Amino acid sequence: MTTLVSNSDARRVFLAKQGLSVPPNTALSKQGLLELIRDLGFVQVDSIQTVERAHHQILFSRNQTYKREHLTALLEKDGALFEHWTHDASILPSAFFKYWKHKFRRQEEVLIKRWRKWQGEGFEHAFDETYERVVANGAILAREIKADGHVSGGWWNWHPNKTALEYYWHTGKFAIAGRSNFQKIYDLVERVIPAEFHEPEVSKEEFVDWACRSALTRLGFATHGEIAAFWDLLTPEEAKRWVAEHRDELIEILIEPALGGKPRPSWAFASLLSTLESVPDAPARIRVLSPFDPMIRDRNRTERLFGFFYRIEIFVPEPKREYGYYVFPLLEGDRLIGRIDMKADRKRGTLDVRKLWLESGVRPSAGRIEKLIAELDRLAKFAGVEQVVLIDGWQEPNGARR
Q1: pLDDT at res. 92
Q2: 81-91: average pLDDT
Q3: Would the pTM count as exceeding 0.70?
Q4: With helix as H, strand as E and coil as C, how does the chain read?
Q5: Is pLDDT of 110 > 90?
Q6: How far, in Å, are 114, 219, 318 from residue 256 at the CA level?
Q7: pLDDT digits 0-9 by tens, 175-227
Q8: What's the confidence (pLDDT) of residue 126?
Q9: Which residues contact 64 (CB under 8 A, 6 or more apart)?
Q10: Which pLDDT tens digit goes with each residue over 218-267?
Q11: How many CB atoms lie within 10 A of CB 301?
Q12: Which tens digits make up the pLDDT trace of 279-325?
């Protein structure tokens, strides 16, 4: 008989797996930061700095003693972390580098055809020239190799040398040695990632086993599609075959959704049910999540587990936005209770709060608002501004709009 896991238990398991059940003021060392990122699996990188860049806010929301200089050292000095792609650009433990070699090989097959067609005549010359320049001269920014007269734009308007840098990064020849004003600095991978992580490529079987096993470990429970999507390294069919081959280690469970309806069949390791009682509750404090937080990356899973509909409206025309350009979800204990629109004004030294929307049934009690303001004060300090400014009309009438 398939066991039904209550929605509250499912949320508790997932939040613990996401590093959101540990008290956020526990002292975090550089080694502790490395372990946190390893446990999460990846931390997404994004350039938007409405309040703070995504990777910094993701880590801060889990531990508010997090130090940016520790992340920089782990990436640029120790080589214990590296930047590459999961579903998007992310920071990953270098211990995972050997598994990414499968991704590099697949990218070579796909990208060379796509980008040859895109760049047209002169494609190979620009790639050879770029590679030889990095070999001879070391780390480089794309702007340092741009042809005279080229007008920069989005990815669709990369100059051939920039395309070459990205190609060699995507295929594992180059790595990101650091960033300057958030622009990537490229160098040979062997000069960035320490030799201890340059292990031979593992077999396809070992690769699939690692990708599925590590994904399910970090999700707690998942469907075939969720297992495959976690790293974006496999197809759902590959994950389905892995489950079939490891049924002796797994159990099928039913996850109760937040808003009622049919429970969702999912897979978990057999030990899950016996350890449910030992999974800690998430701290009751309010935390502001990045729109790119791994906890909410899978929007459909977020809606099923938390009853919280969330989409980033960056690419939605302003008149059609329901909330705002870059709106932050609010986590209180094990509930997503609302969202907030705010922006750091570094010239004025303020964190300007424009609007708060609480979910239906979440009361704007004095205690809750006090907890929110306390968290905003902490976030403002982290973002390097002095005070929180509540703009007139910042509290929306209770209830989310849909």
Answers
A1: 98
A2: 96
A3: yes
A4: CCEEECHHHHHHHHHHHCCCCCCCCCCCCHHHHHHHHHHHCCEECCCCCCCCCHHHHHHHHHCCCCCHHHHHHHHHHCCCEEEEECCCEEEEEHHHHHHHHHHHHHHHHHHHHHHHHHHCCCHHHHHHHHHHHHHHHCCEEHHHCCCCCCCCCCHHHCCHHHHHHHHHHHCCCEEEEEEECCEEEEEEHHHCCCHHHCCCCCCHHHHHHHHHHHHHHHHCCECHHHHHHHHCCCCHHHHHHHHHHCHHHEEEEEECCCCCCCCEEEEEECCHHHHHHHCCCCCCCEEECCCCCHHHCCHHHHHHHHCCCCCCCCCCCHHHCCCCCCEEEEEECCEEEEEEEEEEECCCCEEEEEEEEECCCCCCCHHHHHHHHHHHHHHHHHHCCCEEEECCCCECCCCCCC
A5: no
A6: 43, 16, 36
A7: 999 999 999 999 999 999 999 999 999 999 999 999 999 999 999 999 999 99
A8: 80
A9: 24, 25, 378, 382
A10: 999 999 999 999 999 999 999 999 999 999 999 999 999 999 899 999 99
A11: 20
A12: 999 999 999 999 999 999 999 999 999 999 999 998 899 889 999 99
Token digits of residue 329: 């979800």
Token duo for residue 135: 């070999």
- In angstroms, the CA 238 to CA 229 distance is 11
For residue 329, give the amino acid letter. Answer: P
